[in-house]
Amino acid sequence: MDWAGRIRTMAGEARAASQMLARLPTQRRAEALQYAARAIRSDAAAILAANEADVARAADAGLTDAMLDRLRIDAVRIEGIAAACEAVAGLDDPLGAVIDACERPNGLNLTRVRVPIGVIGIVYESRPNVTVDAAALCVMSGNGAILRGGSEAIETNRALYHAFVEGLGAAGVSPHAVRFIDDTDRAAVGAMLAAAGDIDLIVPRGGKGLVARVQADARVPVLAHLDGICHSFVHGSADPDMAVRVVVNAKMRRTGICGATETLLIDRAFPQPERLLKALADAGCELRGDAETQAIEPRAVAASGEDWDTEYLDAILSVAFVDDLDAAIAHIAAHSSGHTDAIVAEDPAVAERFLAEVDSAIVMWNASTQFADGGEFGLGAEIGIATGRLHARGPVALEGLTTYKWVVRGQGQTRP
């Protein structure tokens, strides 16, 4: 298989379609996504049947419960996928938005205007919803997309993709705007990573191995996060009822997502640590802690040095006691992946200092880290969460899939 040639062809088709997309009025692009959502609902039975086949094959292959949870969809999740598509359609259109404008002393009028990035390659594992989330965001932001999902979800991804582009076609939009690599050959990923000039941005969504490979091998700019080592810090001023409620949710609501808390830091001044640890253990969470943790909660086991730098994606939590806010911030600086870190506190001065000094893409006060999600942020969906410092950070949605150009209007000025 000549994957380099095939990717070049797909990228050319996607670019041509994206140029047409970018010229369409906002309402036409929104309409296309509404048609796609209807097609997904209409094809629900076929999508569920495809997913059953994927889940059965993945279970036979020994995938973990967390990975199976990411892979599995049901009627509720299909509705969520369609609703997310509609939510993207209802967002403010970034294209053509003026970022800033000025007039120079020589009379030149300058504006910076948002435009699509071009062709975006999305390489992802396990979660079939990414097929639609990524496609919808790219269409609404006027970008072409090339999707390459993991082999474990090939049947589900294929069914969702066909429903999505069926909707685009019904709305009069070229289905070439979104291309899908209907093949599990890993060489396709290598060809995407090498496609400088054909693909403008690569977004990996998946495990550490996938993201590390993409970041190491790509000849195309990459927007990614490697780990979701998220912290929740319970300050001495925290309300105990709130602390229990927020922390248990942050860890146990869905353990396999990147916004799940992986390390709990407890201020030694917090009055009810035993209640907090008991609630976690009673909820089925394995606690790996320091000596104080084990002394307070007998079900806890000793943490190793590696635990503080581990994204478990499972019902496992590392726990440490700290002296104060300074110690918590220092621990987070040493071990956080820069994804999402939270504080539970009633003291606003302490909380504001935490929010100002913790250098992560998302920082939270009195909220579960499980809210680290584009949909929860009102972005409709997300193409991924970026933890770097360039271009976009945190949940990447429509605005994060645009760049800008300078528009200069003159009246015949020449430069002396």
Task: Please describe what this structure looks like.
The protein is of the alpha/beta class. It has a seven-stranded parallel beta sheet, sandwiched between helices. A four-stranded parallel beta sheet has the order 5-4-3-6, sandwiched between helices. The chain contains 14 helices and 16 strands. The radius of gyration is 23 Å and the shape is globular. It folds into two domains: 3-225 and 388-409, 3-Layer(aba) Sandwich (Aldehyde Dehydrogenase, Chain A, domain 1); 230-371, Aldehyde Dehydrogenase, Chain A, domain 2 (3-Layer(aba) Sandwich). Helices cover 42% and strands 19% of the residues. The model has no long low-confidence stretch (mean pLDDT 95). Helix 5 packs parallel to helix 6.
Please identify, by name, the CATH architecture of the largest domain.
Answer: 3-Layer(aba) Sandwich
Task: From the 3D structure, determine the CATH topology of the largest domain.
Answer: Aldehyde Dehydrogenase, Chain A, domain 1
Main β sheet profile:
7 strands, parallel
Instruction: Give the oligomeric state.
Output: single chain
Major sheet: arrangement of strands: 10-9-11-8-7-12-13
